[in-house]
């Protein structure tokens, strides 16, 4: 077991995702409690007190984001749940959408109440079919029971929810380009200032939260901020959904209490590596995260993983982060050059093409690594890759360019000998292996 | 007013909201591609990076001015970043300056020499793109040269509001393309995108490979094609670069027309018809004075006109709304008391043309109606059947509609069918051959300068009217 549970503490049955199933485990009690006994600012205060950090990648305190909005300033506000889970290796929100959609909906209502939101949105990636169908069914159930619409539960509070399906661009997971996608313009990340809590969707103050962040809020209101704080560590309260994949025996979504031992998680809960290979590296939080903090995920080596606990502070100190919770485990014998090629191909394909350094730099890096993999690498290529990564760092509107650069530098820093070997010999040190054999 | 420090110097930012604008207004040049004073901020070229003390490097075009902030526009970091940005921009740029019309006035070329100047770091083959993509009957797009600054896209969205252009695809395959259901041909301001393109990606078909811009020079002028009176620049060959071997008209032709920025009239824009001034100004010229269709000398024509004026009693003048302020004044002073004068439109809207819109184009297709009406009133021409002399100044009059008994004196510039039907025809110079001013519909006076030689046998209207008014021909014969 991976510690106490916030989101996954129920048994999955044929109807556990329905409204009846959700009600049976105390669902929508928090909403009734909030609407009857709490003022909007009390709800926000509760979230602030819980200390919950954003689960999308940046780990920004969610309560502080909410405090950026005055629910009574007379403007329209929008709350958006970001379910555009496009980060490679990340599939944790999918679990929430499929198995506990009502937790998200209840939390959306609580958030809408706290922030003075009349129209809330869920932006779900187009590739998610079952999660979308489950969510859509849940929205219909909730509407039928009067949980959305006018005068919810007789409280005078009204809120409508729109489920918006994306069209497959990774960059739409970046909050500001997500707004463009909903508005119907080209989904290009927007410059800050202004921040989204000042001018976001349709020029109105907007909060965009990750699905997991929002879905935890119903639990927080139901059980109180103090109960949430007791879970996890002092600075990283609560749990994280970790979607683990790669060379691991039992891949899947695990809810891990923050501060849990990493080694124990890998070797006991997830059953260790495939083929009993030793660990070569771990990408802890998705190959990047759509964040601005520069705390994007890097590759961790076995020595670093040893004795480390899973929480935001420890990983940040190690120069990485839990990011989006998409953990990729890499076993010994994997060719890191080819792995980097795949990562860079992804960034090139998904760069939106707005900022010069990312548009050109991701393509440039991909062409260089392609050439190295084809056996035509040159010694100066390593320096060029570092150069591109350096000048992608912090020079673009969103974090995609930064993340591509971090991916390259992390691989080059840790596995330089493999790259040198590939360039010198024209073939991989490990036979180009990506699978565990 | 907030005061900021740019490179250590205190700068009063005045009304400027961003660091870039404050820096440019105070003489600190910050390079930029995508930022344009008339368009929204997108901040995608990343070339205007500056360093803010304590906050690191960020783009100046989207950096709000905060009192007391310290900005470095040329620090070590900024220079390195800028160099890297130019390396990125040039990564897939073909650098085909030798065959690019923009060479010589290309922002990328200038910045490369000013801020980078190094050979490419990349040894990868450049990505191929579409060359000569036909955006419209007037504009070609070279996607290899395009740096995706999106100025043209924003222009069609925010200024001309035709919403024609957009960007397709992502990353380094992104392309500027017209919307599926629209074409740039419908945008009467489309050619402005050629001017605002910082590189040679958008090319004018009519100017394509016509001349290297450094052989050309601009002459300030005023567009005569509507009452807005946009100030323009007429580009023609420099005198020191005259061609000796080709058709001499190459040396005087107007090769292209660009806007001359004028915040009181047209801002930095003009419409497409203003770009095609050649089609009206360079029509075949009438260079021979005529009397009943037979060639005479200028002096003979003037004598004949004087005689007609002396013989007649009920004289009507149809004054040109293409005449300059000076010419109108000269007519008023010399002959105003002898004629009943009406202002007539020389040009009417053509079929298919945008008659009027909210940006620049006015329904009155003549440049100086306002000044002419100030002098001669705004009543519609009313030609009495018993008129015995009609002075027609400028085109736009159907002689068949004039009273049969009246003699007609025609003053015109172009070889029109009417010239042979007038009793006397005197050829006049056009605006590219003389100095003058037009007053636009709002009363703003703009000047134009000559850039073409006046043909032999043509006279300025300003000189002509005092001669016509002189008594009995004594001075004319001398």
What is the secondary structure topology, with strand pairs?
The complex is a heterodimer of chains A (437) and B (478).
Chain A (H helix, E strand, L loop, with lengths): L18 H6 L4 H9 L2 H11 L11 H6 L10 E6 L8 H8 L1 H15 L3 E6 L5 H15 L15 E6 L9 H9 L22 E5 H13 L1 H6 L8 E8 L5 E6 L2 E2 H8 L9 E5 L18 H4 L3 E2 L1 H6 L8 E6 L4 H15 L5 H21 L3 H13 L7 H15 L1 H10 L12
Parallel strand pairs in A: 1-2, 1-4, 2-3, 5-10
Antiparallel strand pairs in A: 5-6, 7-9, 8-10
Chain B lengths: L2 E4 L2 E4 L6 H7 L23 E4 L3 E4 L10 E3 L3 H15 L16 H10 L16 E2 L4 E3 L9 H9 L5 E4 L6 E4 L13 H5 L5 E3 L11 E7 L8 E7 L11 H4 L3 E4 L12 H4 L2 H4 L8 E2 L2 E2 L2 H14 L3 E6 L4 H11 L4 E5 L24 H8 L12 E5 L13 E6 L11 E4 L8 E4 L5 E4 L12 H9 L4 H4 L1
Parallel strand pairs in B: 1-5, 16-17, 16-18, 18-19, 19-20
Antiparallel strand pairs in B: 1-2, 3-4, 3-5, 6-7, 7-10, 8-9, 11-12, 12-13, 14-15, 14-20, 21-22
Helix pairs in contact in B: 2-3, 9-12, 10-11, 10-12
Largest sheet of chain B: 7 strands, mixed
Shape of chain A: globular
The residue ranges of chain B in which pLDDT falls below 50 over 5 or more consecutive positions are 473-478
Q: Give the neighbour order of strands across the main sheet of chain B.
A: 15-14-20-19-18-16-17
Strand content of chain A: 5-15%
Ends of chain A: how far apart? 29 Å
**What are the low-pLDDT stretches of chain A, counting only 5+ consecutive residues below 50?**
289-297
Biggest interface: A-B, 34 and 36 residues
Helix/strand/pairing class of chain B, anyone? alpha+beta
Mean pLDDT of chain B: 93
